[in-house]
Amino acid sequence: MRSIGAVCLVLWVGTACAAPNNPSKPNTSPQRTIYTCVDAQGHRLSSDRPIPECLEQEQRMLNRDGSAKGVLPPAQSPEEKSRQDAARRTAEQERLGREAEARRDRALLARYPNLVAHDLARTRAQEPVTRQIETAQRRLAELEAESQNLASERESNGKKPLPQALRARIAANEGAIEAQNTILRDQQAERERLDQQYDAELARLRALWAGAVPGRLGPLPTPASGPPTRASSSAP
User: Fold this and answer.
1) Which of 78, 40, 82, 81 is nearest to 57 (CA)?
2) Where is this region: Disordered (predicted)?
3) What is the spatial distance between Cα 46 and Cα 59, in angstroms, rounded to a whole number?
4) Total Cβ atoms within 10 A of residue 139
5) What pTM, to 2 d.p., does this model score?
6) Is 112 helix (H, G, I), strand (E, B) or coil?
7) I need a surface site. Which of 146, 151, 184, 196 has the fewest CB within 10 A?
8) How many CA atoms lie within 13 A of 64 on its CB side?
9) Domain regions of the chain by residue span
10) Burial of 204 (0-12, 13-18, 19+ CB in 10 A)
């Protein structure tokens, strides 16, 4: 009986040794990928790496056992790459623009924490422009009075040719009136530009004071550029 038991034990051990690996144990050997495609001539190609003849089309990716593993998308054409690069640049510019707007909004809040501060800044910005407008208006009134006197002198001269000195004074008066009118128009345009600027800032500030997130309100409207400020003291 012992002999028969020993023989059975040997047979069982041999069978166990000859048995395949435990199927419950995971297979850790790397799975190599097979790439397959049909080229432009209709030939089916396979390789263990991406196939150069099929770079402009999809390539199927298979496991060694033939099961599907995935799809390798086609390589980008130069035009597609250019479009993608342009889209990336546009997105980056938009991101930088939003960041710049957020910085401007935070700076605006720091400069004008309330309505009183903004109104005071508007008044101070308008003061030199208002002074130049008032100066130009006073000078125009003087020139217009002088023009009336010159007109009286011209009438008193009758039909005789005007003296050279009178002609020179009339020409100087007309040139000075034109210059002052130009200054007046420029300063009125500058005052309007400043009002537009501070009105746009105030609308932005009201939203920010109410809790709007800096950089989320879009670009701040830019008023039309006004003419350069001219000093009335240098005008005739």
Assistant:
1) 40
2) 66-101, 215-236
3) 9
4) 19
5) 0.57
6) coil
7) 151
8) 4
9) 32-75, 98-219
10) buried
Q: What is the CA radius of gyration of the chain?
A: 44
The phi, psi pair for 208, rounded to 5°, reads -70, -40
Rounded Cα gap, residues 159 and 215, in angstroms: 73
Q: Which two tokens stand for residue 95?
A: 């991101």
How far is residue 143's CA from residue 137's CA, in Å, rounded to a whole number? 10
Residue 59: count of CB within 10 angstroms of its CB: 23
Tokens 């390798």 -> residue = 72
- At 62, which amino acid appears? L
Interval 73-119: pLDDT, tens = 888 777 888 888 899 999 999 999 999 999 999 999 999 999 999 99
pLDDT in tens, 127-168: 999 999 999 999 999 999 999 999 999 999 888 899 999 999
Largest separation between any pair of C-alpha atoms in the chain: 164
